[in-house]
Design brief:
- The structure holds 2 protein chains of 2 kinds.
- Chain A has one domain: 3-Layer(aba) Sandwich (Rossmann fold).
- In chain A, 39% of the residues lie in helices and 25% in strands.
- Chain A contains 10 helices and 10 strands.
- Chain A has a 6-stranded mixed sheet, with helices on both faces.
- Chain B folds into 2 domains: 41 residues; 219 residues, no CATH class.
- In chain B, helix 2 crosses helix 7 and helix 7 packs across helix 9.
- The chains are: A alpha/beta, B mainly alpha.
- The interface between A and B is medium-sized, with 26 and 15 residues.
- The structure holds adenosine-5'-triphosphate (ATP) and magnesium ion (MG).
- Magnesium ion binds next to helix 2 of chain A.
């Protein structure tokens, strides 16, 4: 999937001149973004640059100060709570720290979005859906464990499973591989690719990890001082002479040099 | 600094810290307004309300039973000598029942629940807030305010009267056992004596108190937890502040309600 393939497809997320500040701290300062159906975009940027804030605005958890954010044809900050809830059931949000409900077992965690959104499902249908996503993320044995009994990588994958269970049209991954060993990271990378292929999702993948960006994304963008400094395909961005892009690249692929 | 003046619509009325207090009070009233609004709009979270009632009510029973029983015995023992000096120890049951039903059962039960239930709610919601579980609930298309806050406040409000009446009965039982042992009063005589002085107003005002205290405990716990900040440190602070604020407010409400009830007695 190269750039040209997706240009004719309809856009699922489009952001225009987005600005967001917290008090006197300007976090986002004119972000423009366009994601086409089936496209994976990796967003890179150093810690505190506002990557998490960006996807929280896309899912309506934070309100933009200025600019328009259109998701699946709806402006997230203008629609009614009922419309927003309906929209959210089509967006999967995988949190930076997994955010599993720690008073519930893995089974209850996975059942929660399903029960809350589709009231007409039978017990067996729910059970079936839970088993399906657990197999998808490769953790069927954890079904009756509590989140506190899982490792960090397992929690991440259960967090992704919890968002997949509603078969979302858009996935937002907040640092899916941060703090994980290379083997688990590459498993998660293949999972992200598999989700894109299988569910036809469009995704934003926030990451510091260039291997993850290279393997999972069609395009990458670098967020610096509240704006996208550079965006395009992986090679376009990292073969450029831009200093920040080079710093990212050299840190991640130090052996290349 | 700017935000404070904006929200109040005034420049510092008294001082910065006083105005902050007013702003917090304003936010709490907004919070309460939202609870009422969400509590009366469909869909209702019946299953979760019942679940929380079980958490608040049933799980507090052992503690409430023990303290109610001990208070009944201790208060009887302590009151006996002074009544005996007037040769009035036969009045013991009626004195005890007034003390327990009117004052001790509501106040002591509420303080215990503030400690147990209030801190529990503050810590639970606080940790859900700082680990983004509340955000996760919101993005999975659930209204977390309704699911977490409204259900807990309803549970504490409904269950507190039940706990108060229960602890009153257990306290009377403790008192009866002590009186039976010392004065050989029969159960029938004890009941007759005890309830002759208690009016419907006493029971109703205790139930009213319990409803207010339950609501206070629920709101204090939920407000502190729902707006917890600063990681794990914030969770501890939320639980702690929830208890302190709830206990403080319970004493103030006690004073106001007693004044009011005495004026219509
Ligand atoms: N709710 C909030 N209130 C106030 N400030 C916030 C809030 N959320 C984020 N910020 C601030 O916005 C800035 C960007 O935060 P954000 O979490 O988006 O960073 P990030 O790019 O995701 O970093 P990391 O890679 O470490 O996760 C930070 O300086 C943070 O302090
Ligand atoms: Mg982040």
């Amino acid at each position: 999937m190269k750039n040209n393939d997706v240009t004719e497809k309809k856009s699922v997320i489009s952001i225009n001149n987005l600005k967001k500040s917290f008090g006197s701290l300007k976090v986002l300062d004119g972000v423009n973004l366009n994601i086409k159906l089936g496209e994976n975009l990796a967003v890179l940027g150093k810690s505190g640059s506002g990557k998490s804030v960006l996807i929280k605005i896309i899912s309506g958890l934070l309100k933009p100060d200025e600019g328009t954010v259109t998701v699946l044809g709806l402006e997230v900050d203008k629609i009614s709570p009922v419309e927003l809830r309906a929209l959210r059931s089509k967006i999967g949000f995988s949190f930076q720290n997994s955010a599993l409900y720690d008073s519930m077992t893995v089974r209850e965690n996975l059942a929660f979005p399903l029960i809350r959104n589709k009231t007409n499902l039978s017990k067996t249908e729910i059970q079936h859906a839970i088993e399906e996503v657990l197999n998808e993320v490769g953790l069927p044995q954890t079904i009756d464990q509590m989140p506190s009994e899982l490792s960090g990588g397992q929690r991440k994958r259960i967090g992704i499973a919890r968002t997949l269970i509603l078969k979302p049209e858009i996935m937002l991954y907040d640092e899916p591989t941060a703090g994980l060993d290379p083997i688990t990271s590459s498993e998660i990378n293949s999972l992200i690719k598999k989700v894109q292929a299988q569910y036809k999702t469009s995704s934003i993948i926030i990451t510091h990890d260039l291997t993850c960006a290279k393997n999972t994304a069609d395009n990458v963008a670098i967020l610096v001082q509240g704006k996208f400094l550079k965006s395009g395909s992986f090679d376009e961005v990292f073969k450029s002479e831009n200093e920040i892009a080079r710093t990212f690249y050299e840190y991640n692929f130090i052996n290349d040099k | 600094m700017k935000a404070e003046t904006d929200n109040n619509g005034k420049k510092y009325l008294f001082s910065k810290s006083l105005d902050t207090v007013f702003l917090a009070v304003n936010n709490v009233f907004k919070f309460i307004g939202l609870i009422f609004k969400e509590a009366f709009t469909a869909p209702f979270e019946w299953k979760e309300i019942i679940n929380q009632c079980f958490n608040v009510g049933f799980k507090s029973l052992p503690l409430v039973s023990l303290t109610g029983f001990i208070i009944g015995i201790v208060f009887t023992k302590q009151s006996r000598p002074s009544l005996s000096t007037f040769g009035a120890s036969s009045w013991l049951p009626s004195l005890i029942s007034i003390a327990i039903i009117r004052a001790l059962a509501p106040l002591v039960t509420a303080l215990i629940a503030a400690g147990k239930v209030g801190s529990n709610i503050g810590a639970e919601l606080g940790s859900m807030k700082v680990t983004e579980q509340i955000d996760a609930m919101e993005v999975s298309a659930t209204n977390p305010f309704k699911y977490l806050v409204v259900t807990r406040v309803m549970a504490t409000t409904f269950m507190m009267p039940v706990l108060v009446l229960y602890s009153g009965l257990v306290g009377m039982l403790g008192s009866f056992m002590n009186i039976h042992q010392n004065e050989q009063t029969s159960f029938a005589a004890f009941i007759k004596n005890a309830f002759s002085t208690i009016s419907f107003l006493d029971i109703n005002s205790s139930i009213f108190k319990a409803v207010c205290y339950g609501f206070t405990i629920g709101v204090a716990g939920c407000y502190q937890g729902y707006y917890a900040e600063n990681g794990t440190q914030g969770v501890g602070k939320a639980a702690n502040t929830a208890v302190v604020v709830a206990m403080f407010l319970i004493f103030i409400e006690e004073m106001i309600i007693v004044q009011f009830v005495n004026s219509i007695r």
